[in-house]
Write a structure and sequence with these properties.
By secondary structure, the chain is of the alpha/beta class. It contains 10 helices and 25 strands. Helix 1 crosses helix 8 and helix 4 crosses helix 5. The longest helix is centred in the middle third of the chain and has 19 residues.
Length: 444
């Protein structure tokens, strides 16, 4: 347990993304928060909701709706906010950091919440002008410009981020076309045989591909990028696949995963692997430095979903207070994946492919576009994929985490939570009645 900090304790948080901002909000709720807090962000914009970049790109909301807090709010809370400066070095001995603007900040406690960046494949042409990531507001604004100019865009990656980028581009391009600018053609390249192969089975992925194709996206599965081609001006002109096929392109979007921004911690001498290693208190190999979110690694796991990161925030806020709770530790827990791509709802958890011990329950309504598939083992739910109507997803996930025997409501599991709960309640009542002591008749 940390000793109570002095009144002058200075906490510096490097990173003003969603994780860093969530930590600030959590600390402000605590009466024992550090006396002085400084937040340093390398973007010029105050914290915003990156999850909403896709609907913003699609033209479904104003930019102002993305902002989590305006810069003035930080001052009102007594927090120093430094924007548009990147921390270039950390002197752990002096407990001092330096930014690219020459600013020096001393700290007693330091939090690295530096996030991640798009993982760029090592292929020829990756450095050409017109090749974009899709990770921050600058990326989204650049893609909006691409869509409004019209032409041909190829999105590399058929996972969630790639499909969100493709749908956002398509929608913005349609709106621009209606206003008289050039039309936009969007293609998606997926290396595996199906879209979202880490979350969906073949049936759900097929439904998703059919719907996106109907909307106007060109989907290419089993397509491996070999090179990005350009002209003599260094501008992208197309992509070439491993099988020799070529697709013309005025722009390319890379959405093949993320790389943790761990370099700052690594250069400071912190223990790192793929990301900055932390323990259950989110403490690095230096007891005065913590790491949080996509830049950290706990027991071999790195992060890209908000649910585990929000749990990390709760633990770290406790550790940064003057009187941290003894049992406040981060632990890995199963997570459900909740996805929404252009109005298409998906919910999934557990294994994707059944094994020999699984009982498979499935429901498919191709007219309505609904699909549900459950994997049970000895009556207990281990995995689910829901496409279309996902209302039952949280209930199913809760039952799986509780390890409840769902045999009594098996026939209603694909119908809805209310029907399943009614059968479970009836079974519980019958069980309670059967186990009660019953009167014994006296012999005549």
């Amino acid at each position: 347990m940390y000793p109570a900090p002095p009144e002058t304790e200075h906490l510096v948080i490097i990173g003003n993304g969603m994780a860093g901002h969530r930590l600030v909000e959590a600390l402000l709720k605590r009466p024992d928060r550090p006396a002085r807090i400084t937040v340093v962000g390398d973007e010029a914009t105050a914290a915003y909701n990156r999850i909403l970049l896709s609907p913003w790109l699609a033209g479904e909301m104003e930019r102002e709706a993305l902002i989590l807090r305006k810069a003035e709010w930080y001052a009102e809370q007594g927090i120093e906010l430094v924007l548009g400066e990147r921390v270039t070095s950390i002197d752990r001995t002096a407990r001092r950091l330096t930014t690219d603007a020459g600013r020096a900040l001393d700290y007693q406690r330091l939090v690295l919440a530096t996030g991640s960046r798009p993982a760029m494949p090592a292929v020829p042409g990756i450095e050409l002008s017109g090749v974009h990531g899709f990770r921050d507001l600058d990326d989204a604004e650049a893609l909006a410009g691409v869509a409004e100019r019209g032409g041909r865009v190829v999105v590399i990656g058929g996972g969630l981020l790639g499909l969100e980028a493709a749908e956002g581009l398509r929608k913005r391009g349609e709106a621009a076309c209606r206003q008289g600018t050039g039309s936009l053609a969007v293609s998606v390249l997926q290396r595996s045989a199906q879209l979202m192969n880490r979350q969906l089975d073949a049936t759900a992925a097929g439904l998703l591909e059919a719907e996106l194709t109907r909307r106007g996206l060109a989907i290419h599965t089993g397509a491996q990028l070999a090179a990005i081609e350009g002209d003599h001006h260094g501008r992208v002109t197309g992509v070439r696949l491993a099988d020799g096929k070529r697709l013309a392109a005025d722009g390319v979007v890379i959405a093949t995963g993320i790389t943790p921004n761990a370099e700052l911690g690594r250069e400071a001498g912190l223990a790192t692997q793929r990301a900055i290693e932390v323990d259950g208190h989110l403490t690095t190999s230096d007891s005065a430095i913590h790491a949080l979110g996509e830049c950290c690694q706990f027991e071999g796991t790195t992060y890209g979903l908000v649910e585990p990161i929000w749990r990390q925030v709760e633990v770290l806020a406790e550790q940064l207070g003057a009187n941290p709770a003894e049992g406040a530790r981060y632990e890995e827990r199963p997570s459900a994946t909740r996805l929404k791509i252009g109005g298409i709802s998906l919910f999934a958890f557990g294994p994707i492919d059944p094994d020999a011990g699984h009982e498979v329950l499935a429901y498919h309504d191709p007219v309505q576009g609904d699909y549900r598939r459950l994997l049970l083992r000895d009556g207990r739910l281990e995995g689910a994929i829901l496409y279309g109507d996902t209302a039952m997803g949280p209930w199913l996930f809760g039952q799986a985490q509780a390890g409840r025997d769902l045999g009594p409501c098996r026939r209603a599991l694909l119908l809805g939570a209310a029907d399943a709960d009614a059968l479970l309640d009836a079974h519980d009542l019958d069980t309670d009645f059967d186990t009660q002591d019953r009167p014994v008749k006296e012999a005549a």
